[in-house]
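Practice problem: predict the structure.
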Amino acid sequence: MQQSNKKRPAGYLRRNIGTTFRQEWQLWVLLLPALAFFIVFCYFPMYGVQIAFRDYKAAFGITGSKWVGLKYFKKFFDSYYCGRMFANTFLLNLFGLIFGFPIPILLAIMLNQLNVKRFKSFAQTAIYVPHFISTVVLAGMIYLFFSPTNGIINHLITAAGGKSIYFIMEPAWFRPLFIGSEIWQNAGWNTILYIATLTSIDPQLYEAATIDGATRFDKIIHVDIPHLLPIAVMMLILNCGSLLSSNTDKALLLQTSGNMAVSDILGVYVYNVGIAASKAQYSYASAIGLCLNVINFAIIMLVNAISRKMSDISLF
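Answer:
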């Protein structure tokens, strides 16, 4: 009997790839733009990672700058506000994940239950629109709506007999405003993947459930949710990989002297020390960014391993 693990002849892999390329060269050509995108924008910039280990000077270039090793990593972890920034960033993203992650799933299930096509299309369009609002405009809307003098929210509070609240200056209101606006802006857009999953379910499953006497709620529990679970777990794993990465633009725009203790997150700090003209500490900012990326990668690997062990669902 011939063994299945027989050693391949020399050059087998090279000839096999060459044959595949000649037979399906059109598919390889279609793949080239995607490969070029990742090479140019993802892999080629990794050459600049060494800036985090050098005292970068633009006049000397990357390789000409002095090698300082872990100097800037130590400087970051020894900084006075390091712990506060880590805590603020992690808590902001953790609360956003807890309160924001289930919303697109619930919206997708609700939209899937709509039978009137026109109303369903209108509802989908209405919840997609906020995604296209720029961060600057959204921050301006928050300032207007929650203004202590002219804001509609404070008008409602005072009309009900309450006292006007300066939301933007109150540290306790920064996270609710940040997370709430994030959910309002992106929850509808994030339903696209879940709606696509629900529309791919075989209609015969719903017909069989109806014959068995299942109610609409029973169909959601026993048909919709089991089909949504794999994609939901994978999205949860991906979201856990950004627990130390926030919407820096919005945090910077919503930051005030009053909420500084809560809004001082890592992204804003990197912007201030790395891009602001008064400081421009490129090596220091690169070291912080590299450190955060390594931590996020470790988190996503850990969550993926836990998911694979508990549910046999994982990214890899």
